[in-house]
Amino acid sequence: MNYIELELSLSSVDIYSDILQSDLCDIGFESFLDKKDGFFAYCQKDIFNQEDLDFLLNAFRENNPSVNVSYDIKEIEQQDWNMEWEKSYEAVLVDDFCYIRASFHPPIKNVEFNIEISPKMSFGTAHHPTTYQIIQLLRDEPLEGKDVMDMGTGTGVLAILCKLKGAKSVDAWDNDEWAYENAKENVMKNNVEVDVKLGDASGLSKSYDLFIANINRNILLQDMATYSKHLRTGGTLLLSGFYDNDVEILEKCANENNLHLVTHISKENWAALRFIKKQ
């Protein structure tokens, strides 16, 4: 099956990228890959509609006149897609702690955890600084006997790592169906027990000792109260998916919800935070 690749560039990526990706899902685009000034979006050729795309982008421009939007489109053959992905995909080593690889990479020795994933364009390969830093924070997180939530799980790599580290139970949720299916596949590849679900914070009903959310700033601000409500006293909240200049507003929101910042790390201007829920 052939795909349409949309390469979209924005003058304001941080604020508007998620909005456009959500809108593109409504017209058949099913996977996304971020780049410095925007993202790539992919749609099956058989369901791609140029008129729908033009209507969507024209409406976006009318509602956001200060944002410059440009795009290119090309067709990708499925065989070439897979070959190019395998040639370009590099395994990721996070210190001597965790090695994230595809099936065509052999596992390595002298590392605590080898995790095999098939990304299929879902977020969470550890190439991005946000996922990489959450993995770094998890290294120092005691997980044996703990209940864990990975909200916005993407590939499921963080949830898989938590289970391998000894967590009693791990829930992995994503509101994107592509990511949901991908996470289920990767959980099976790594032979771990993780409960993968299609959903978001509005569906939470239980409490956790560790809550992970590697999502964009606006969603984190919107759902912070819900995260805190479903985090046990003394529990840990790990956040990423935002820039260093977003930390102040996120910390303020967290403080208002009884969460205390204890760790702030940064990589390439992307931040990751560890909070503890107060007594």
Automatic annotation (TrEMBL):
InterPro entries assigned to the protein according to its UniProt record, in alphabetical order: Ribosomal_L11_MeTrfase_PrmA, Ribosomal_PrmA_MeTrfase, SAM-dependent_MTases_sf
Enzyme kind, highest EC tier: transferase
UniProt entry keywords in alphabetical sequence: Cytoplasm, Methyltransferase, Ribonucleoprotein, Ribosomal protein, S-adenosyl-L-methionine, Transferase
Keyword Ribonucleoprotein belongs to the record: yes
Gene Ontology cellular component annotations, sorted alphabetically: ribosome
GO biological process: methylation
Gene Ontology molecular function, alphabetical: protein methyltransferase activity
Lipid metabolism listed as a keyword: no
Spans traversing the lipid bilayer: none
Enzyme Commission designation: 2.1.1.-
Stored SUPFAM superfamilies: S-adenosyl-L-methionine-dependent methyltransferases
Name of one Pfam family that matches: PrmA
Entry-linked NCBIfam families: PRK00517.2-2
UniProt family annotation: Belongs to the methyltransferase superfamily. PrmA family.
Name this polypeptide is given: Ribosomal protein L11 methyltransferase
Native organism: bioreactor metagenome
Species lineage: unclassified sequences, metagenomes, ecological metagenomes
